[in-house]
Sequence to fold (68 residues):
Amino acid sequence: MPFPADAMRFGLACGIGADGRWHGWFDVQVTADALRPLGLHPEQPTAVANGPSPPGWWHAEAERRARR
Fold:
């Protein structure tokens, strides 16, 4: 999605994990004002997690069914 450059922020971090292997992770942050034209905003009830994630098997089964 095309957002103004000042509306986005990227973060990248790397480090050695407890298992001795390198791990990397990143995050992307977009300001709320940049999301409003898309109909997304913090006041939406679905903008916040409202419960625990489904178990891993649920996601795996959904992916299997999507490939059929």
Observations:
- The mean pLDDT is 85.
